[in-house]
Amino acid sequence: MKISEVASKTGLDAKTIRYYESIGLVELPDRLDNGYRDYSEQNIRQLWFLRHARQFGFSIDQCRELLALWADPQRRSAAVHQLVTEKVQDIDRHIRELKEMKKVLSELLVECPGNDSPHCAIINKLASDSE
Amino acid sequence: MKISEVASKTGLDAKTIRYYESIGLVELPDRLDNGYRDYSEQNIRQLWFLRHARQFGFSIDQCRELLALWADPQRRSAAVHQLVTEKVQDIDRHIRELKEMKKVLSELLVECPGNDSPHCAIINKLASDSE
DNA sequence: CCTAGACCCTACAGCAACTGGAAGGTCAAT
DNA sequence: ATTGACCTTCCAGTTGCTGTAGGGTCTAGG
């Protein structure tokens, strides 16, 4: 199967697929006589895996670990459990940070008239010389 | 005032301050006879502003806009209001995405035994060939 | 006076995770 | 024979810094 078909199947961009190959994340696909990449079912399964893992917010390096765990019949599910637990904690921390940003910005929005006058609580807050 | 003092005052890294200068984000500080940067109160206020705006998650380009609005006595607070409203919407979208990731991962975590066996619902989910 | 250590300077390389573009080869249809 | 849609490689750019190399300057101590 050629790259654009794999791309539309997996939802990855052809560019992204080549990129994953270039950084050694996935196995090399075969090549046709004309040099075009020819993806096997196994190649495509790996790309699906990456698509999903990336959607869950795992970094490329974490994807590398996950792929290795997937490939390893001796894997301990505890290893996966830990990796994912840490990821969930990361996400939680991230959500907390975003909520705090949102909270402060929303409070400031209420105080900003949003009209033709230059006075603005947001600008004043940003310009203050303190934490 | 020299750069390291400004850095510890504003909480920005000296490298970051030079970087902001290099991309034309802030006014150029004076230089001492030895070539060292010499920051004025005005320079420092700009850096405080950037520190705050970055903490609120504004991109460098948005910071550029905000700095321009701050400097403009003719500004309309409506412009600031709109920029910040969009930012809050971005944050909201981001939070929603993260919550969805977290939800699915948490559900999978419950199904992953986290022991010595290789069976793992998370790996299975990632390996599935569907959305 | 010399030296060590803490500053400061510039300039370039690299990070994540792609994305875009240039320049060219291939293939199917008209 | 030519068009247009593919495919290839390689290199540059994105965001927002951070690290490193290679150097100059300043201050304190011996």
Helix residue percentage of chain A: 55-70%
List the strand order in the largest sheet of chain A. Answer: 1-2
Specify the overall morphology of chain A.
Answer: elongated
Oligomeric state of shown chains: homodimer
β-strand percent of chain A reads under 5%
Biggest interface goes to: A-B, 57 and 57 residues
Radius of gyration of chain A: 23 Å
Mean model confidence by pLDDT of chain A: 95
Instruction: Show unreliable segments of chain A.
Output: none
What sequence of helices (H) and strands (E) makes up the elements of chain A?
Answer: HHEEHHHH
In whole angstroms, the N-to-C terminal distance of chain A is 56 Å
Number of helices of chain A: 6
Strand count, sense and barrel status of the largest sheet of chain A are:
2 strands, antiparallel
Write the layout of secondary structure elements.
The structure is a homodimer.
Chain A: H1 3-10, H2 14-22, E1 30-31, E2 37-38, H3 41-55, H4 60-71, H5 77-111, H6 121-127
Antiparallel strand pairs in A: 1-2
Chain A binds a DNA duplex (30 and 30 nucleotides) through α2.
Structural overview:
Two copies of one chain form a homodimer. The first copy, chain A, is mainly alpha-helical and 131 residues long. The first copy, chain A, is built from six helices and two strands; from the N terminus they run ααββαααα. Chain A has a two-stranded antiparallel ribbon with strand order 1-2. Chain A is elongated and about 70 Å long. Chains A and B meet through helix 3, helix 4, helix 5 and helix 6 of A and helix 3, helix 4, helix 5 and helix 6 of B. The first copy, chain A, binds a DNA duplex (30 and 30 nucleotides) through helix 2.
